[in-house]
Structures are given as structure tokens and as C-alpha cells.
Amino acid sequence: MRRYHSIDALAPVHEAPCPSSRNSLTPMDHRKLTYRDAGVDIDAGNALVQDIKREVARTSRPEVLGGLGGFAGLFELPPGRWSHPVLVAGTDGVGTKLKLAHHAGEFRGLGVDLVAMCVNDVLVQGAEPLFFLDYYATGRLERAQVAEVVAGIADGCEQAGAALIGGETAELPGLYAPGDFDLAGFCVGAVEKAKLVDGSRVHEGDQLIGLASSGPHANGYSLIRKVLERSGARLDAALGEATLGEALLAPTRIYVQPVLQTLAAVPVHAMAHITGGGLPENLPRVLPAACAARIEACAWPRPAAFEWVQREGRIEEAEMYRTFNCGIGFVLAVPAHALDAALKILRAAGEQASHIGEIVPAREGRARVAIE
Question: What residues does 208 pair with on adjacent strands?
């Protein structure tokens, strides 16, 4: 098994068993076989290492320990940095956005998506993402394609401040159709136990801040692809100042640095990463049972991609909100007295931050999130 750790040895690792029948053998079948004959090209995997070394190296942090090409990545928790650290881990993928990106021939943004889906989840607990690992599986190794994805992963790790300390590329002939591949990401972060954000401090009167998304991020693409199929629209069609493809494939925003700055300056009672299920299903995950959220839909602009999807797919408003983020990718709940300070910090850090609602008492028989 071959892996890459730190900046070394990324290569294909698996083969799928090939069915055979003694009765079907021909003279050609008796020649000496190689791994390449089975569909796994070790030389291509070794060459790929040279393509991505620089990309991986630019994400390094001082806590990353040496040991190139080892069986595991090493990351030191510096003594004194935390008095009682809690490790926070997350894993995710990018779903069927892969299919749309493949159709468009755009792969670098997928790497950013992969990192974002993981680090934003870890951030919800108040944790600083420390390191990241990835897994890339395909039927046949395409060096340029993998290198582009890994470059995007490095972009995302740089944005998040996380080190890319390991990964694996698996070449699985017979398991994946030609041209297909899948991605998975894994992130570990840390937070001081006393500063863990778990939603337990949320109470009536807390104010909700929404951070703008760049578009659908990495959720709802099965529906998006169905709308594209029904509409017959071309990805190079104009949509505002961009093309439809650019709007639909915009990389997921990574909120780590602005939110960490906010956490260091003002009290934050809860946070939510708005992924599949949208606001109605993700926000209640961080609210106490006695609390609900009231949200003003007019408090933020909805990106053009969502307007296009809703119009072309004839999708009802409720379905939009339970499928997509609809323009809000991350939510913070702060006490009322900290609202202005939090908005100022987030906006100064480059976020499009909006005051989108407040926490209200939960009532039996009523939705936990009311979007008005």
C-alpha cells in the first residue's frame, strides 16, 4: 500500500480482482502480466508525486513533524498552546457536484470544496482546523486531473490554515467507470475545552448573523443536474456577470479565519454550517430544545444561481430552503449586546455578514426555524 504523507509518495494503491475463466484462455492470456495490464500504473502514480510536492508543501505548519513517505502523518500539539485541548474531527465529500465539474472540465474548485465541507464543520465547535487528509479513488489515474484537484485542496488548506499532512490515491479498475472518481476529506482541529461552542448557552433574544455563501457550495447537485437536464441550458450561458457554469461550480466558502477572529473578540453562543437540509435542518442541530429561530428572508441577497435553479425547476420556496443554503453558508448566534461588534469584525475580514434573525421560544407544533 502506498500513501503520501507530508510531501511524499502519493500513488495508486489498490487493484480490483479481474474475473477469469480457465476455459476462456487464449495464447495471449499466457503472457507474463504486469500491474499495468490489470489497470494500475505505478509509474504514473510515482510521477504524480512530483506534480504535487510543491502544492502540499505550501500548506505546512510548524507543528508538522518530519518523516516523508511514512505510514502516517505526524502533527505535534505544542506544550502550552492549550491547557485542556479537545480534538474535533470531521469528514465529508463533495457529492454529485463531481459529475457537473467533470462535465465542465473544472476540477480545482472541487479540492477547495472538499476542504471547506470538513473545516467548516470542525469550526462549528469553535475549533481551529489543524490538519487535513484526503482520499482520491478512480478507475484510471489521470495525472493532470489529480494534480488539479490536489492543488485545490492545497488552496483550501491555505485558506483554513490547516496543514495537508497525508492522503491516498487509489486506482481501482473495474470498480469505477472510465473517467469517474470520488473524493473524501478528513480534518482534525482543536479547541480549549472551556471555549467549546456547543449551543448550550443559546437563549431567547440571541441574534443571528448569516455569512454569505458563494452559491450551492457542495449540496443539492442531484437536483441541480436534474434542472439542467430538463432546461437544456448550456453551462457557458450568461448568468449576471458570470456564466451559469461558473455560478453553479463556485467553490465553497471557507469561513475559518474570520470566524476565529470573531470568537477571540466576542461571545458566540452557537454556530451552524449550512449544508444539505439548508437553514431549516441545520440550525436546529445547535439549538437547545426550548429555542427556535425566526429568520427574515429579505435580510440578505440570494445569489443568481438559486434564482435560476428555482425558476427553471419550478421549485417551491420551502423545497429551496430545505435543499440549498439559499445564500447563507454559515450562521452565528451571539448575544444582542455583541451583535454590532461581531458584524464589524466579520465585515472587516471580508465577509458579507448580515443580521438575519433572532432566537425565540420554541412552541409545540411550530417549526424550529421560521423563515418569514
Answer: 333, 357
What is the crossing angle of helices 221-231 and 304-313, to 10°?
60
At the topology level of CATH, where does 207-371 sit? Answer: Phosphoribosyl-aminoimidazole Synthetase; Chain A, domain 2 (3.90.650)
What integer pLDDT is reported at residue 54 of this predicted model?
A: 81
What pLDDT shows up at residue 171?
Answer: 86
Q: Put residue 132 in one of left, alpha, beta given phi > 0 → left and psi -120 to 50 → alpha.
A: beta
Q: Quote the pTM value.
A: 0.88
Q: Which of 27-36, 237-246, 352-361 has the lowest mean pLDDT?
A: 27-36
39 three-state secondary structure = coil
Element (H, E) at 122: helix 108-123
Report d(CA 154, CA 132) in Å as an integer: 10
How many other CB atoms sit within 10 Å of the CB of residue 337?
11
Element holding 340 (H helix, E strand): helix 339-348
Read off the pLDDT of residues 317-338 as tens digits, 9 standing for 90 and up. 999 999 999 999 999 999 999 9
Beta-carbon count within 10 A of 50 CB: 11
Helix, strand, or coil (residue 282)? helix
**pLDDT tens string 59-73:** 999 999 975 566 888
- Where residue 14 falls among pLDDT bands split at 50, 70, 90? very low
Spatial neighbors of 244 by CB under 8 A, at least 6 apart, are 233, 234, 235, 236, 237, 238, 305, 308
DSSP letter for 252, please: P
How far is CA 191 from each of CA 127, 130, 211, 311, 341, rounded to the nearest angstrom? 4, 10, 22, 43, 22
Strands 238-239, 181-192: pairing kind? unpaired
- Domain boundaries for CATH 3.90.650.10 within the chain: 207-371
Topology (CATH level 3) of domain 4-16+34-69+82-195: 60s Ribosomal Protein L30; Chain: A; (3.30.1330)
Interacting residues of 311 by C-beta distance below 8 A, sequence separation 6+: none
* Per-residue confidence band for 53, with pLDDT thresholds at 50, 70 and 90: confident
Percent residues over pLDDT 90 in the chain: 74
